[in-house]
Amino acid sequence: MNAFVAGSGVGVRTGGERRGVCVRKRARWVNRRGVVTAVVEPAQKEAVEKKAVEKEVDVVEEQGNGVVPPEVPLIVPKRTTFAGLVYDRLQDTGADIPQQVGRLVTKPQLKKDVKRPRLVILGSGWASHSFAKVVDAVKYDVVIVSPRNYFLFTPMLASTAVGTIEFRSIVEPIRKANEFIDYFEATCLGINAQDQVIKCESVQKLEGESNVFDIPYDYLIVGVGASTNTFGIPGVEENCFFLKEIENARELRKGVITRFERANLPSTPVEEKKRLLSFVVVGGGPTGVEYAAELHDLVTEDMSKKYSKLIEHFTVTLVQRQNTILTQFDGVLQQSAMDNFKQSGINVITGADVVEVTPTAIHLKDGRELPQGMTLWAAGNGTQTLVQDLLNSIPEQAEARGRLIVDDWLRVKGAENVFAFGDCAAMESGALPPTAQVAGQQGAYLGRLFNRDYCLECELPYATAKPNSNVETIGMTSLAKPFQFLSLGIMAYIGEEKSMIQFEAGDNKLKLSGALTYLLWQSVYATKQVSFRSRVLVLFDWFKTKVFGRDLSQF
């Protein structure tokens, strides 16, 4: 039985859940499968009602709600195969080009007298940057709020922490992502989802002026990432370094040189020299493994020439709770990384739990004590305070484990007009790895949802009619496809100009490791830089390091 929905209401929620198809100033045909098949302007209402009677179908008059009767099911589009997903991504990229070119060439003028829906984005990481690049900032009033006014290419943080790459080579001003967006250098203190307002505090402390201000929004997008998880272990916060931000990389770089200089003093006892030059990395994921590898390269290739008397005391130890490192990779590549570390002289301790960190040692659960002069803690992701506060305020997020639960269209469960992506979000349909690749794809996906005028308040987002059209056939293809992650593979640097790459195509995997793979690793990261400037700087830094070595100056 067909149903006809007429009226000009907006979607409503029943019991905290989205129900039915949202109707905005038009009438819509809904077939027995619940798929919208036609959009009719109000002027055509009488003609359509007459047609409905002739065809002996039910006419459902909307009472300002726009809700399809419960007996009409809604069909979620099927997920795409790997090949289909690649095709979709290519189509999406092609569709973005006219807008990107138009933005650069025509420089469209914003109409100040026209009120546009406001999109507020929290964060300036991978997801937020991708969203800002794709979203139509002429159609929407886009505001980014972040204490960091730049995008950071996080996969190369380990390289900057030892001087292989310079700090400014992997950062890009967030305003460059889209010249039509507004940016406020501020921290979000809280989210009032009911009144659709966020409270912010300026990073710049202005004396005599209020540093706190409110920003109303029509749509809020949370992309604040994750913090480092210390698991409440005593001494971690006080005695460990972290590697999440460019400031962390700067501190690590300075910390290594400081310890070598202290160990080099004639007044430093031999035992203290050994402790100072005992470097520990806790966490066997990509961050921990790559930093251990980069640190070993720094010392053996450059510092050994300037601190030759100290090299015999230098050690790097990687502590991993699980029984192997780089668990995201295939077992063959995991073993390859372990073997390479063993040959390089990097100690790997697996199956070990850290129970305490003191200024001079790492204490393990089995009673072992590892002397340490400097420790990098890279043992996992934690929850940002803002995200935890939002989780606590939404009853539907009671089962969440530190990340905002979102549906297939990245809408936060239980919070109207709030979206989330990146490391602070967890998809209800299945877990995704907390990587830059996932976050970047989510940001671009959500930007396209907004650009294409999908009804995001509806249970199933569908494309609304084009302006000035009386009737438009919609059908299944107009329903927004759910987000799907297209895995292009994973990479890791394992030291001595060797890398590992695992390409993935559906269930098929291609595993590569060795010196030649390092060139491919470099090529991929150079290509993935977000600007031509960054590509040139990164390539130059690699050339400079190869020819002149790393800079060991401390300032």
UniProtKB/TrEMBL annotation:
Q: Which PANTHER family match?
A: FAD_NAD(P)-BINDING DOMAIN-CONTAINING PROTEIN, NADH DEHYDROGENASE
Keyword annotations from UniProtKB, A to Z: FAD, Flavoprotein, NAD, Oxidoreductase
| Gene Ontology CC: one annotated term | mitochondrion
Domain FAD/NAD(P)-binding, which positions?
118-443
Q: Which Gene3D superfamilies match?
A: 3.50.50.100
Domain External alternative NADH-ubiquinone oxidoreductase-like C-terminal residues, every copy: 489-551
SUPFAM superfamilies found in the cross-reference section: FAD/NAD(P)-binding domain (SSF51905)
User: What's the family?
Assistant: Belongs to the NADH dehydrogenase family.
Task: Please identify the protein, giving its name as recorded.
Answer: FAD/NAD(P)-binding domain-containing protein
Q: Which GO terms describe its molecular function?
A: NADH dehydrogenase activity
